[in-house]
Amino acid sequence: MKIPIAIHRTPTSKVTKVDVEQSPLGTVFTDHMFICEYADGMWKYPRIEPLAMIPTHPAAMALHYGQAIFEGMKAVVNTEGVPVLFRPEANALRFNNSAARMGMPTIDPALFVAAVRQFVGVEHAWIPKQRGSALYVRPFMYADEPFIGMRAATRYKFMIIATPAQPLFSKKIRLLAETNYIRAAQGGTGAAKAAGNYAAAILPTEEAKRKQFDQLLWLDAEEHRYIQEVGTMNIFFKIAGKVITPAITGTILAGITRDSVLTLLKDRGVAVEERPIAIDELLQAARDGVLEEAFGTGTAAGITIIDQIQYKDEVLQFPPSTPVATAMLQQLEGIKTQEQSDSYGWVVPADTSVQEDVSSKVYTHHS
Ligand code: COI
């Protein structure tokens, strides 16, 4: 079934007034937004409208109790000139996992994917063409029921906006291993892409930036010993020829780029391990001369090479050569733009077929 999404286009697109190739992520927004409301136990009236302020009641529950989740995904133009998305179904599943953890309603993955495909179809002129650049698409959901009190909200908005984006980091980065603050503990919300996780990370990250680090490396909450993830990325190491990354245990985000890199490496026959990695193991590997590479993976960050990690007063310096990260960057970019064959079926075209307004009144979906 094609999910009907009403489309009301702006008569005055801003796209010709903006240099989409130069605007940093999150500074310029496209012409439209997708919006859909949840009430009476169902999602109603999905539509794409001109981007506008959304009236918010001062008691909207997201503002007080933080029921707010989001996703990040990127659209590029493939070698045939078709706007395409990377693994949108994976984002839909993770969005629902986040919603479930935060006591929020889930969304039919078919609605999520149709909304993203049609939204990017409408906004395709905003996709930067430079290699490595993309249109960053931000689906999100928040509780907009006005209520003071501690319970799950009964009304929500699911929306999508987008911003042209260059790679988040254009150079190798320096990390500070955080030994005071924590990001997530077992049983907490660390695996959800919940706004509150990012809120709690802002102060520690600002402190690290003041000390000239680019990002934090989070350690586990119990012992401050096991590597978790970087501010906006999962992390991979190459130690003595093996590629290792922290296992998904409930405290880190199940990154879609992380999963893609694991798949590509395994298919190349590279030995990969998902397991706990203690900071002492990295220090020992450095002493033994077998600490070979480190890189971060994320939607906004892509593949970001890590130059140094500071842990207390020790500095872990990674070698200049980064064969695994470079190979992954090239292969992922190649697949995303379909320069290389997409044998995994990861690339999904945007839906540019809907040109006319259609009524969305008929579509409602129980979560
Ligand atoms: C992403 O990589 O999609 C993120 O959500 C990170 C964000 C802080 C830009």
Write the layout of secondary structure elements.
Elements: E1 6-7, E2 32-39, E3 42-50, H1 61-65, E4 68-70, E5 73-77, E6 83-86, H2 88-101, H3 109-122, E7 134-143, E8 156-165, E9 173-177, H4 195-210, E10 215-219, E11 227-230, E12 234-239, E13 242-245, H5 256-267, E14 272-274, H6 279-288, E15 291-298, E16 302-311, E17 314-317, H7 323-336, E18 347-349, E19 364-366
Parallel strand pairs: 1-3, 9-10, 9-16, 13-14
Antiparallel strand pairs: 2-3, 2-8, 3-19, 4-7, 5-6, 5-7, 6-18, 7-8, 10-11, 12-13, 12-15, 15-16, 16-17
Helix pairs in contact: 2-3
**Unreliable sequence segments:** none
Give helix and strand order, one letter per element, not per position.
EEEHEEEHHEEEHEEEEHEHEEEHEE
Number of helical stretches of at least 4 residues = 7
Largest sheet: 10 strands, mixed
**Straight-line distance between termini:** 17 Å
**Mean model confidence by pLDDT:** 95
Strand content: 25-35%
Bound molecules: 2-OXO-4-methylpentanoic acid
Estimated structural class: alpha+beta
Radius of gyration: 21 Å
Number of strands: 19
Outline type: globular
Helix content range: 10-25%
